[in-house]
Task: structure prediction
Amino acid sequence: MLKTFTKPLVLLVAAIALMAFMGCSQAPEQTGQKAEQAAPADQAAAKDRLEAVKEKGVLTVGVKDAVVPFGYVDEATNQIIGFDVDVCKYLADELGVKLDVKAVTSATRIPMVAQGSIDVAAATMTHKIARDDVIDFSITYFMDGQKILVAKDGGITSVDDLAGKKVGTAKGSTSEKNIKAAQPECTVLSFEGYPQAFLALKQGKVAAVTTDSTILLGLKNSDENPDNWVIAGDYISAEPYGLGLPENESNFRDFVNATLMKMWRNGDYEKIYNKWFGQDTKYYLPLTWQMELWP
Result:
């Protein structure tokens, strides 16, 4: 009886083992089919940003829409124009693609680069080491420094006079931390943008607005009564602007840097700069700094 029972059991085990072996022998083929099917998606993911921009034929950039003269809405065309737009247009022309401009703020510009919503952030953004954890930056394409904008007859001539007073700036900007470090006894109120902070100054809700001097110059000279306002005191900090770029996209970053240096060398940068900051504009600022140029 034992022999009779054992033989069918052995045959059953052998059959199961054979099926398992056949199943394993098919696994590489099935895995290969899956890998082959996944290959196109993997290749698309591996395509670098420079190639992707060329393929789609559009360079998508983020520019502020309320910071004169870097980026603001032209009332005649309802389009965003300004210095930052012209710099990005130069990049797009070098690539032979169209330019698509999206509005960003100090709070949204870095997330939009990180998420891939834009290819470049040209948005009065100071290159800080801490920001390198999230995105990459170009070489410095604009140099500025932080100051304060105050009422001409307000009795404030420097940051020292802001002790115990309220100061307005924009959310997500370096200005928030810089003013607090320069004057720990002031109260910082952060607004959605600099126009809102300037409105608070005109309404007497803050004693000063602080950010980069060129942005303050734009606020002051865009007002219907520019002589009522003064950009006061010494520089609080240096503000080297960089173009925000996708993290770990070296080919794209190299292209942007090479193009910026080309602009500087051939005089096109100065032409764009003078268009917005030259002597014949409302926002005159002498070009006194030198772009980093690589051999």
Summary: The first strand starts at residue 58 and ends at 64. The mean pLDDT is 88.
